[in-house]
Amino acid sequence: MQAQEDIEAIRDALVHVVAEWTQGDLQVRVAESIRSPLDAGEVRSLYLLGMSGGSLGFGELAERGALSRPTTSKLVSRMSARGLFDRVRSGRTVEVRLTEAGVEAYARLVAAGQQMVGGALTDWTPEEITRFQSQLTRFVAALPRATLSTARRSPSAPVSPQEET
Fold it and tell me: Residue 8 domain-assigned?
């Protein structure tokens, strides 16, 4: 059953990519490469805010970062002290926003990540890169639907490609 073996190989490769990309020491090294001494949680929070248009509600930042509210509060305080985040209170809610320096730090992190991806694709042809980008975009777009359908099934039920379409 080659298709199932291929799906397992893709899953394993994705787990490996996520594990490599999110390693705390890698995130710290990337931050150091842009001359920004941030720990892994701070780098992640910068990414989360930047990818969300520069702001998130405090609770949403905690949820997306998989952090407790007290940990998020300490993180936001540190990032505010560094001039990267602002807390904006609106009634009873607090929004966390990137400052101008935060936007610049996020842009440098993104550029460093693009260099890493570019380095990994050095030996690829332009056609291979275009195909990979197209397939990866399609895969990412299908994830929310696949995640919901998988959550409705028992954990032991295998997923076939036919079930996903």
Answer: no
Retrieve residue 113's tokens.
């990540």
Span 84-139, pLDDT tens digits: 999 999 888 889 999 999 999 999 888 888 888 899 999 999 999 999 999 999 99
Pair 65, 117 in one domain? yes
Instruction: Give 151-161 pLDDT, tens digit per residue.
Output: 565 555 555 55
- Same-domain pairing of 46 and 96: yes
Residue 42's domain comprises 20-123
Beta strands (DSSP E) in the chain are: 55-57, 85-90, 93-98
Query: Do 103 and 129 fall within a single domain?
Result: no
* Contact yes or no for 50/106 (Cβ under 8 A): yes
pTM score over 0.70: yes
> Domain containing 42 — which CATH number?
1.10.10.10
37: left (phi over 0), alpha (psi -120 to 50) or beta: beta
Residues 150 and 130 in one domain: yes
Q: How far is CA 22 from each of CA 44, 54, 76, 134, rounded to the nearest angstrom? A: 9, 21, 20, 23
